[in-house]
Amino acid sequence: MADIPARTELKVTTGPIRGSRKVHVGNLGVAMRAVDLEPSSGEPPVVLYDTSGPYTDPEARIDIMAGLPELRSKWIRDRGDVEEVAQREVRPEDNGQLGPDRSGGVQPFPNVRKKVLRARAGHNVTQMHYAKRGIVTPEMEYVAIRENLGRERALDAARDGEDFGAALPDFVTPEFVRDEIARGRAIIPNNINHPESEPMAIGRNFLVKINANIGNSAVASDVASEVDKMVWAIRWGADTVMDLSTGRNIHDTREWIVRNSPVPIGTVPIYQALEKVGGIAEDLTWDIFRDTLVEQAEQGVDYFTIHAGVRLPYVPLTAKRVTGIVSRGGSIMAKWCLAHHKESFLYERFDEICEIMKAYDIAFSLGDGLRPGSIADANDEAQFAELYTLGELTKKAWEHDCQVMIEGPGHVPMHKIKENMDKQLESCGEAPFYTLGPLTTDVAPGYDHITSAIGAAMIGWFGTAMLCYVTPKEHLGLPDRDDVKVGVVTYKLAAHAADLAKGHPAARLHDDALSRARFEFRWRDQFNLSLDPDTAEQYHDQTLPAEGAKTAHFCSMCGPKFCSMKITQEVREFARLQEEKAVEGADAGMEEMSKRFHDEGGELYVPAADR
Amino acid sequence: MADIPARTELKVTTGPIRGSRKVHVGNLGVAMRAVDLEPSSGEPPVVLYDTSGPYTDPEARIDIMAGLPELRSKWIRDRGDVEEVAQREVRPEDNGQLGPDRSGGVQPFPNVRKKVLRARAGHNVTQMHYAKRGIVTPEMEYVAIRENLGRERALDAARDGEDFGAALPDFVTPEFVRDEIARGRAIIPNNINHPESEPMAIGRNFLVKINANIGNSAVASDVASEVDKMVWAIRWGADTVMDLSTGRNIHDTREWIVRNSPVPIGTVPIYQALEKVGGIAEDLTWDIFRDTLVEQAEQGVDYFTIHAGVRLPYVPLTAKRVTGIVSRGGSIMAKWCLAHHKESFLYERFDEICEIMKAYDIAFSLGDGLRPGSIADANDEAQFAELYTLGELTKKAWEHDCQVMIEGPGHVPMHKIKENMDKQLESCGEAPFYTLGPLTTDVAPGYDHITSAIGAAMIGWFGTAMLCYVTPKEHLGLPDRDDVKVGVVTYKLAAHAADLAKGHPAARLHDDALSRARFEFRWRDQFNLSLDPDTAEQYHDQTLPAEGAKTAHFCSMCGPKFCSMKITQEVREFARLQEEKAVEGADAGMEEMSKRFHDEGGELYVPAADR
């Protein structure tokens, strides 16, 4: 392996998240992270959903050159419906290198499988297929344990939320997961050639998920930084990762990413197909696209964005838009339709696409190629015409027992967001909605992670199952490592705000634990319970660096002389005493307290000793 | 002046915002900023609301030692209802220095007025008083011009939005402003002793405003950095600034800020009163509080936060909360009530407070001392009990013709936000609502500008008139200069998203201009139209530093080979041609286009020349 990059070139971040401990639950060893609180709290550890995979497990040995262990391999083979076939030969054009010249190429992944899996003739290996037949798979069991997340502790808590018709269970059973998959209301994206993935569900009745996009473009980035970005994104909470690479080395870059990813990987196959025809959309053919699907299916991609709803008659509907067609896949297909004056081959060959999807269990992410690219174009005729077609295709995919989610906008002002959710639920039979933001205004380039987090939290509340993150670099450039983290944490908080508003039975456990820590000045617990403990502590230390301050009963907002939290402890003492004195009447209690305050000289100062 | 700080110690940022030009409109010279677009756009300049005052005016001479010019001085005196009185003597305790020792004190502002203004006996100088008498003041005229902001250009555009019963006019007339002020639905906070302020309105039927908090605490900060923070905050869009200083030098710090501020300044007088009694809440008296109101009134503070709704019977309602009482003012008053077992002197002396407010035209910001400090405590009995009392006090203040706004939460999950707005509108007679966020989850310390921007945008849409910003340091420490900017820009975009959703007639002009610039690859126009041009350009340059790239028809997201925007120009050409050919039937047009694409070899590549 002398000619492969030194490991330092493929360095990724490992080790536990600050203040968290990896735990494995149940006989399937479902990975979660536990945050231990200060003993003074007398509270149990807070258990949080964990997307980071083995990278945060001190016990795990990480070897990027070898890839992750194959968690699901036995589950898949034990079903007895797959066969091993030789992997399709990798061709120069797969890496965007049409000539024999491989210069500028990246090292192929050293541990590529020579044999790959495929459904045996006449078999269908999708989770939906099993679900419809009443089979509860290990993947479904894994998801049930993963989603429950301390829910039992919340059972006594009153449900508080508005779920707009969702059906959040008090407790998630494997049977509930199976039923949601069978109905098409949820998906578990996990290609049989990606056994490294830890099963997760995307659906309105599960925790709201988030996706992070990575991928080199012809202008910047390389394989090492893309693998690092993937590991970095899942560390902070990305539930799935999309590899949107374009230009050269697409195939090899993807192999590095998939083999090292514990979360589902999504792609937009048309991007690679376009590279294979030198970037000329009208030269695309069904055969080239089909070959690309098989190529990526064998590598283990878990879901494909396919813009089969961009139909020839819809293209002119975008002519009067302020920002026309902003989806890359959408514009590729629009151009193809115009150039040939033919209906989209993706639309016409949809059944054949389904045949491929079900042979590997790849989920559809039906792309919104005509999504609005500006506030002005939101909810227009072109957008909804495509949505209705996606609904039609969803039913067709379900006839094949293929798993489906639907992509959504984009740029939508607040008052038009709910209409998107309502129309999607109605026209797509409650198939999971997967939106990009939406951005609620166009005037803040540089802050679009925030303009979009507003829309994302709202549409997540209304019922969207997964939110595709937006980074601060949106519209401006390619996100770097820091942008990826900011985007992921921003979307994690938006998704959590949505879970809270929906009335998810366990969501508030996290908020309440952090609020109690704040109220009791357990600074360490506050940091550790934050979605980003490192940043929380760093911000605190900028104004109060002293280690002592971490336990001090004040923060620099109020200063040491006065603190609003302290008074409340006195209010409680007062209320308690008032209750005791109830028999003699509250007034007596009042006077008693009044007297006590003066006897104690009830200071608002915090004694120097406490500082 | 040898003993005063060198000017470099009080350096503030001056000069135009990148890509913007200061313009003065009408005979009152209302300040706005114009963004000139590239000639290729063929579009007029985009005129934006400008809170930055003379600091961004190249014509203006800035002298922090002298303070700003007195824009409103003549308007105030010409009304003939004020008299000059000697300013109250500044005492050591005003600066939190009870002994003769002034060490650690800051330099007094060199240009303090010896004489200050006050309403002549029997007169009332509030804008509401004039409005109720049918008088249109120059302040109202100024506001009308300022709020219209290119609205005439939007008159033909169809109104698009959901305003929940607000009454946004197609065009703002001085008479409309007068009527809103008279009804109490809007306020113009401008103390007659702050003639430097540029009139602005806070009301549901005007643009949504934002406030930035500054102020030293006993732990950090000093006068120079606070003045600089004020100038920095208004540069990026803060409509008002609250000085929340505690500890020493409160009086002198405030003088520096007020004399140099073109925006209304708000304070929480109880903070200073508490300092005057050495931090012992129960030692507070009406006389000390009253004296503090007069002291600050004479300095020119434009609105006072007064927690008169924290009544003795409500205090025990907070006993079972997760985070008790988190408002500093609220807990000071709660402690006072408990210690004396008496009703709040702020509540009982409310009429006397009104007498002071109307002698200087200081607006009430009725404080929400019992606001929730966590998701768990949102919308509880204590919070709403106080709100109803604030409604009762609003009517009382209106009987004195005092201007009033109402402060709101805080921490509220999305599904409970609208109830806050509905109850406030109902119980407070549509007096302007002024909320802090609200934060929609507690789990993201370090990102609370975002958790709160989500709630702020929503409640702004529902009808809140002003949004108090939250910085990334919230709950962790004192914001620095960078935090102030991030907080202001974040809230500016949230306020704008709210204006868009309400269907403000002019709001979309800004979004559409930026979207057209994006669509046409006018990078410079995109940067200049951003709420933060510096950050937008800097992010762009990180991946595409070449000056040439600024005019190139691609960005690093797609790379030079393919660009989704370009295709749309072809779609338009296609649609145009299709219409021409309509007589011969669309098909002919289709084939024609199909042929043309091939003749032109319709490339998706951008010729190297364009790069």
UniProtKB/TrEMBL annotation, chains A, B:
It holds the Pfam family ThiC-associated. NCBIfam families: PRK09284.1 (NF006763), PRK13352.1 (NF009895), thiC (TIGR00190). Its cofactor is [4Fe-4S] cluster. This is Phosphomethylpyrimidine synthase. Zn(2+) binds at H411, H475. Binds 1 [4Fe-4S] cluster per subunit. The cluster is coordinated with 3 cysteines and an exchangeable S-adenosyl-L-methionine. Belongs to the ThiC family. The keyword Protein transport does not apply.
